[in-house]
Amino acid sequence: MKAWLCENPIGVEALSWKDLPDLPPGPGELRVAIKAASLNFPDLLIVQNKYQMKPPLPFVPGTEFAGVVEAVGEGVKGFKVGDMVAAFSGTGGFGTHANINAMLAMPLPAGFSFEDASAFICTYATSHHALIDRAALQPGETVLVLGAAGGVGTAAIQIAKAAGARVIAAASSDEKCARCVEIGADATINYAKASLRDELKALTGGKGPDVVYDPVGGDLAEPVFRSIAWRGRYLVIGFAQGAIPALPLNLALLKGASVVGVFWGEFAKREPRRNAAALQQLAQWYAEGKVKPVLDQVLSMSQLPEAFARMGSRQVVGKLVLVNA
Description:
Blueprint: E1 2-5, E2 16-19, E3 29-38, H1 41-47, E4 64-72, E5 84-88, E6 97-101, E7 105-107, H2 114-118, H3 121-134, E8 142-145, H4 151-162, E9 166-171, H5 174-182, E10 187-190, H6 196-203, E11 211-214, H7 221-227, E12 233-236, H8 250-255, E13 258-261, H9 264-270, H10 272-287, E14 295-300, H11 304-312, E15 319-323
Parallel strand pairs: 8-9, 8-11, 9-10, 11-12, 12-13, 14-15
Antiparallel strand pairs: 1-2, 3-4, 3-6, 3-15, 4-5, 5-7
Helix pairs in contact: 3-4, 3-10, 6-7, 9-10
């Protein structure tokens, strides 16, 4: 097998494409021939030694991929050679093959492309857990999605619409805002040009959004939280802008609002049955055409450095996907 190996986590430039030994799956594992893998923001952080999970060196990065089962380890039930699967494994995706715990594999129904499947679990499971579970989103409520053109943002737009909500998508350019409308947003705000507070007041008749989906953090958080509706739920997804905001907690009191943490990975570990049910609903929504990953570009696995460079430029709309020929 071949894979991108991280031997020194100082950044993307230290990754190297290397031949590695083919290892049979251990007990409870599947060996998967990887057909497609997608980039997520943690993939960048982990090779920079900035992510909360620090795998032992050396390691193959790549949190998420899809492919075909080539071998089944001892004790594995429910999978056979030839099955199509997707997985969110934390590492191992940026290569031609990977051995993974079978508990991490999601069987793919017929008609689910490898490219879509590789860009599905992390962003859609995160957004489903956030909006449906943590926020208890109701039909007719208004959701503000920050960073709406990114991977989790585009997933959040689609899931909120599938749940019957009205969606305001906030992004950093007119082009990104236009793409958000194409995938279902009811209204948009270009926060590089306009005041978030003024636009939210106009778009909600002064009420504010019922739910805020925030994967950005930084200096957007406080003005948005000041605009949230009574009994609003502010979903803390991540901090793509870099800075972790410090919200004045008196605002939560005055608004009767909740600040709600969203950590899908831990939820999946602690509540596997609820996570499996969410993934099942998402797969059904995919089959019904209600959700579909937005793919920015599909590149060769050998083009990982170029994909990271595009991610770092903040030009990506949706997800970047790498494929093995």
